[in-house]
Amino acid sequence: MDTTINRSPLSQTQLGIFLDCMRRDVDSYHIPNLFRMGKNIDAERLAEALNKVISKHPVIYARIETDDDGNPVMYSDKNNFRRVKVEDISDAEFEALRHRLIEPFQIIGGNLSVIRVFRTESGVWLFTDYHHVISDGASQTGFLHSCDIAYRGEEPPEEGISGFEVAIREAEGRAGEEYNAAKRWYEEMFGGTDTEGKVYADVKGDKESYDSRRIFLPLASDELKGGAPLCYAAMGVVLGAFMHKNEVAYTTVTHGRKGRATDHTFCMMVKTQPVRCVMEKGMTIDGLVRKMKEQLIGCRRNDLFSFAEVAALTGITSEILFAYQGHFLDIPQIGGEPVVM
Predict the structure, then answer these.
(1) I need a surface site. Which of 59, 102, 164, 190 has the fewest CB within 10 A?
(2) Alpha-carbon distance 88 to 126, whole Å?
(3) β-strand 247-254 against 271-278: which pairing, if any?
(4) What is the pLDDT of residues 172-182, one digit of tens each?
(5) 288-292 — which CB contacts under 8 Å span 24+ positions?
(6) Nearest to 61 by CA among 2, 1, 134
(7) In this model, does residue 298 exceed pLDDT 70?
(8) pTM for this structure?
């Protein structure tokens, strides 16, 4: 990670969130978590581990300002780094406080993260809240894993590239031929997508139901069983059954990370991408899953073309969104004890 880079434009994903926050007052972009630590966790040691990890992720203490042209820019300043300190509080006081821990973020000029450690008579609690413009699920999972490493007295991993570098590289890519190639790929893959139709419910008497159909997907190849392509194909088949169509379009979200360099990057990198599922006559389930796999790989390779641009080009909307993110449900241990949400 180049530690001299501490300023960048917002990525396309971040910009979408920022503009939504500017249009309306929203609380939906908070990502709060309250963790109860194991009974043997030392609060002071946990706070020091947190501070060590935070120091390696400058986006955690970044802020957003506007430049002379009115464009939002993200910057990091060491003065924004607020060290985590243990807050001693009674169980009764904490019970009264826990429902008031979430406070509105100020999207321009304000801190975009809150990390606090509470010590009560009955245990130790960790509260984190990040604005979605700087964080995502992979960031938070990686942050907790790094805290466990630091708590054990080891050196937590460095970022391969920072969130600032990610945004800068995206901006550079969008200014060149790579962006034009991505646009052409989307035009070829999604041009002419059938976006008409609606989801029809099953009607039983005076009640409507969407859960009455079972779809069986017989796979011949073991290599295609499990994973995202199979799930996306299944979603397409089920959606087609409810829409009475052989071609459907919907959206999904991906973690947006490419290569090992972003494994430990703390930043909002999630991307919305379209899915086009065409069930051609005579196509096997294996063939459909392979088509989904090729399409998903292509979307990731060409993600310089933003979803907002895809929507304008194709008419595909995020009204129907299917997310496959089971691998983010992993809750790590800290200090050899499970963390309880």
Answers:
(1) 102
(2) 12
(3) antiparallel
(4) 999 999 999 99
(5) 288/233, 288/236, 288/237, 289/219, 289/224, 289/229, 289/230, 289/233, 290/224, 290/229, 291/233, 292/229, 292/230, 292/232, 292/233, 292/236
(6) 134
(7) yes
(8) 0.88
